[in-house]
């Protein structure tokens, strides 16, 4: 390849990508980014799952509260 070829955008981008991929420092940063990104996705999933369960429990408690409460129904019928 001649130095003039690196002026073309396709070749320049390809050369830059190859240089980054084969650079040890860049590979380390990419690997760390993938690890931290995966951890962030897992934590966000746990938070969403916990929130959904909390909303579900709250909804169930509200539904139970709308009907006759077992403790008050037992006292009312026995008196």
Can you offer a commentary on this structure?
With 79 residues, the chain is mainly alpha-helical. It starts with 8 loop residues before the first helix and ends with a helix. The chain has 3 helices and no strands. It has a domain at 1-34.
Number of helices: 3
Overall body shape: rod-shaped
Chain-averaged pLDDT: 83
**Structure class:** mainly alpha
The main β sheet shows up as: none
In angstroms, what is the radius of gyration? Answer: 30 Å
Helix and strand string, N-terminal first?
A: HHH
How does the SSE layout of this entry go?
Elements: H1 9-22, H2 24-66, H3 70-78
Question: Gist?
Answer:
This protein has 79 residues and is mainly α. The chain has a domain at 1-34. The chain contains three helices and no strands.
Descriptors:
3 helices, mainly alpha, 79 residues
């Amino acid at each position: 390849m001649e130095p003039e070829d690196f002026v073309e955008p396709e070749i320049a981008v390809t050369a830059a990508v190859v240089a980054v991929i084969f650079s040890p420092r860049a590979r380390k940063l990419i690997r760390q980014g993938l690890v931290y990104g995966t951890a962030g996705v897992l934590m966000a999933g746990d938070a969403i799952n916990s929130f959904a369960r909390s909303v579900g429990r709250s909804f169930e408690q509200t539904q139970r509260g709308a009907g006759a409460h077992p403790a008050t129904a037992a006292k009312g019928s026995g008196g």
